[in-house]
């Protein structure tokens, strides 16, 4: 055992402090490196969720004498969706094209059933909601980095490559110029072309807030925070009629230039769609009919 004289104490202490300092520095360097790399990885994976086509257009030829049905947020409520289609069939003798407003999956009971139905049934078109975005991101994190999805996303591990690819390539909007309408999950900014819209805003926005911009003075920016600013629908001037979902709290929204179809089926509300009866050439809406079905049960309690 070595014995140090009292005179050595300051030297020993400073050595210890030096070592502690070095270890602290090394630890913070290593953790910042990993933090940096995971943040980069997150951004890289987010890039990988981008669809091949961001904005899809349907033409008259996509309808060929059919009617059009636009369905609100399904969230895996497969039984209710089947009931809804039964109700639609009672209201029109024609076959129909279906467009989903996004959030077809997640939170609810039968996500894979809904997904399989959508993929395997002809004349169905879907856009992506914030939940499709989350699912694709969690799928990539699990497949590439072995990150376990958190509840209620564990079902994401069961996705096949085809299903994941289908979700990844869902566009942010579907426009039908002949009927003067656009379908988007959350909302749109008035006066801005679709191509200039931010992807996350289209899938998440609720309101527009006035902020100062150093070049343009006051400008309106989208926000997803409820109760902040003005609902985007109040400022949407048309001319396109926008069909959207995402806002279960506000329930069915019937505005002059927009229709909100999320009636909160997964929270014990109804599942709603609009049936647009078209003329024979499918270039004019003859009649609009709202159709809803009651939920089988409350799948997610509203807190
Ligand atoms: Mn949503």
TrEMBL record:
Residues 127-132 form the Serine/threonine specific protein phosphatases domain. Keywords: Hydrolase. It comes from the Eukaryota. It catalyses: O-phospho-L-threonyl-[protein] + H2O = L-threonyl-[protein] + phosphate. Its EC number is 3.1.3.16. The keyword Hydrolase applies. SUPFAM superfamilies: Metallo-dependent phosphatases (SSF56300). InterPro entries: Ap4A_hydrolase, Calcineurin-like_PHP, Metallo-depent_PP-like, Ser/Thr-sp_prot-phosphatase. Belongs to the PPP phosphatase family. This is Serine/threonine-protein phosphatase. It comes from Clavelina lepadiformis. The lineage of its organism: Eukaryota, Metazoa, Chordata, Tunicata, Ascidiacea.
């Amino acid at each position: 055992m070595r014995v140090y004289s009292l005179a050595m104490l300051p030297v020993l202490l400073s050595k210890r402090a030096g070592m502690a300092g070095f270890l602290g520095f090394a630890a913070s360097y290593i953790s910042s490196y990993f933090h940096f790399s995971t943040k980069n990885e997150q951004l890289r994976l987010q890039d990988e969720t981008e669809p091949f086509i961001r904005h899809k257009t349907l033409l008259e030829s996509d309808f060929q004498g059919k009617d059009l049905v636009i369905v609100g947020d399904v969230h895996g409520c497969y039984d209710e969706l089947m009931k809804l289609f039964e109700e639609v069939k009672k209201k029109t003798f024609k076959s129909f094209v279906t467009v989903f407003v996004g959030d077809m999956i997640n939170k609810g009971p039968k996500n894979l059933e809904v997904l399989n139905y959508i993929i395997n049934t002809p004349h169905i078109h879907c856009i992506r909601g914030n939940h499709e975005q989350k699912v694709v991101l969690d799928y990539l994190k699990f497949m590439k980095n072995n990150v376990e999805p958190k509840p209620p996303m564990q079902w994401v591990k069961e996705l096949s490559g085809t299903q994941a690819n289908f979700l990844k390539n869902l566009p942010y909007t579907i426009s039908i110029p002949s009927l003067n309408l656009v379908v988007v999950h959350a909302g749109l900014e008035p006066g801005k072309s679709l191509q200039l819209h931010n992807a996350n805003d289209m899938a998440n926005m609720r309101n527009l807030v006035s902020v100062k911009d150093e070049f343009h003075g006051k400008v309106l920016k989208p926000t997803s925070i409820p109760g902040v600013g003005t609902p985007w629908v109040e400022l949407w001037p048309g001319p396109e009629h926008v069909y959207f979902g995402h806002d279960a709290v506000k329930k069915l929204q019937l505005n002059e230039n927009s229709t909100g179809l999320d009636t909160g089926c997964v929270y014990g509300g109804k599942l709603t769609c609009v049936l647009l009866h078209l003329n024979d050439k499918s270039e004019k809406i003859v009649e609009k009919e709202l159709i809803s079905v009651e939920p089988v049960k409350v799948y997610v309690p509203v807190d």
